[in-house]
Design a protein that fits this description.
With about 400 residues, the protein is of the alpha+beta class. It has three domains: about 170 residues, Nucleotidyltransferase, domain 5 (2-Layer Sandwich); about 35 residues, no CATH class; about 110 residues, no CATH class. It contains 13 helices and 13 strands. The strands form four sheets. It has a five-stranded mixed beta sheet, with helices on both faces. Strands 8, 9, 10 and 11 form a four-stranded antiparallel beta sheet that branches. A hairpin with a 5-residue loop joins strand 2 and strand 3. The longest helix is centred in the middle third of the chain and has 21 residues. The protein is globular, with a radius of gyration of 24 Å. The N and C termini lie far apart (about 55 Å).
Length: about 400
């Protein structure tokens, strides 16, 4: 049985990991929803799963195949499950692979997320993009990406008589009133299998080139998965969940370093602030993004350029569509556990096509929700005369 909240990654070699990739289809667009929401959708299903134990050949599994015994033994032995997007694949295991196909469901502590490792090195979040930056030649081409995107969504979506009441118009769930036709030509299925094999190989080639997560970063990733498991609120942890993270010295130290009452109060205040921003921006739904940006400096390290104490930390950006409070909460949650970072959420909405890594500038603003004026100079007592319009609130 795996030990909770230990750093598995430094102990993992290419020969020891179980690498896995799963290709899916759904009427739900996984790019617009959480992995759990996607995996729970009535239309989400599996095309193919590919896995490899260490340097062994990649094995493919299809929904009509029996449960792979070698995979079952590997999971039961506690072998680390290495996936580029472990959060997405975990959701598929819990909602589809286990319940529908009788696959064993590994405990959280057994998972290793390569995307988290790549993000810690400021690499692109996509598997092929990260592999390209690292210099791995074995990766997908544009044609592969196009096929995978096409086969992930229905070819046709047709209303039909409700399977329950026999009517075209009723209040029953749309799963009973919708016919979906998929891109399932034989040649496309063969190509998708090949691309699944390629993704497993690419992940295996990339893994040893990624820097292991630190103990605290590993624990933070594990804690994030616990926080956002179904039925667990962002600001309230159940007794069982608390027990699962209590053994982590680093997590406990981070909590003890916060102001008194912060574990209970601060998340609620943050949630309220985020909900307020999205509420103010509601009339702009579909017209832009809400942005939060983290900046920081590590005072214990030396700047390699100046030789002075204080090394600037990489800028971290989280973006969410207007109205997507949960996405903003999840993005902000990462900053709460990063030492030396300060988080800024401008009272502005940025253009919808802003690149996902960009924090945005004045030229990218499409709407302003409010203005904050900060006067700390010698002329601060005359602040009222210097404002362009009367303020709603004044903090002295």
């Amino acid at each position: 049985m795996a030990t909770p909240f230990i750093d598995l990654i430094p102990k993992v070699t290419v020969a020891e990991g179980l690498y896995i990739d799963i290709k899916t289809r759904s009427d739900c667009d996984h790019r617009n929803v959480e992995p759990q929401t996607y995996a729970e959708n009535w239309s989400t299903d599996i095309w193919v799963a590919g896995y490899a134990i260490g340097q062994a050949e990649v094995t493919l599994w299809h929904p009509d195949d029996p449960v792979p015994q070698e995979l079952t033994r590997a999971i039961a032995s506690g072998l680390p499950i290495i996936s580029y997007d472990a959060r997405f694949v975990r959701a598929l295991f819990r909602n589809i692979m286990g319940p529908r196909h009788s696959w064993p469901i590994p405990p959280l502590e057994q998972w290793v997320c390569m995307a988290a490792m790549a993000a810690a090195m400021d690499l692109p979040t996509g598997l092929d993009d990260a592999a390209n930056v690292i210099g791995i030649a074995e990766r997908q081409d544009k044609e592969a990406h196009s096929l995978i995107r096409r086969m992930a969504r229905p070819r046709l979506r047709t209303p039909q008589l409700c399977a329950i009441c026999g009517k075209m118009t009723c209040d029953h769930h749309k799963m009973f009133r919708t016919s979906l036709v998929w891109w399932d030509a034989a040649e496309d299925l063969v190509r998708l299998d090949a691309y699944c094999v390629q993704d497993v190989r690419t992940a295996r080639a990339l893994f040893p080139l990624l820097r292991p997560l630190s103990q605290s970063a590993r624990e933070n990733w594990l804690r994030d998965q616990v926080i956002y498991e179904p039925g667990t609120a962002v600001d309230t942890l159940s007794t069982e969940t608390t027990a699962r993270i209590a053994s982590s010295a680093a997590v406990a130290a981070n909590a003890n370093a916060r102001p008194q009452g912060a574990p209970e109060i601060v998340p609620k205040l943050i949630r309220g602030h985020i909900e307020l921003i999205h509420l103010l921006a509601k009339p702009l739904a579909g017209q832009g993004k809400v942005i939060a940006t983290g900046f920081g400096e590590n005072p214990d390290e030396t700047d390699p350029e100046t030789g002075k104490r204080g090394r600037s930390l990489p800028t971290k950006v989280t973006q969410a569509a207007v109205g997507d409070v949960k996405a903003t909460l999840e993005g902000v949650a990462q900053f709460m556990k990063r030492p030396h970072y300060k988080l800024y959420m401008p009272l502005a909405i940025f253009r919808p096509d802003l690149p996902p890594w960009a924090k945005g500038y004045e030229r990218d603003v499409v709407a302003c929700l409010g203005i904050v004026a900060d006067f700390d100079d010698e002329d601060a007592p005359h602040w009222a005369e210097r404002l362009p319009l009367p303020p709603n609130y004044v903090l002295v």
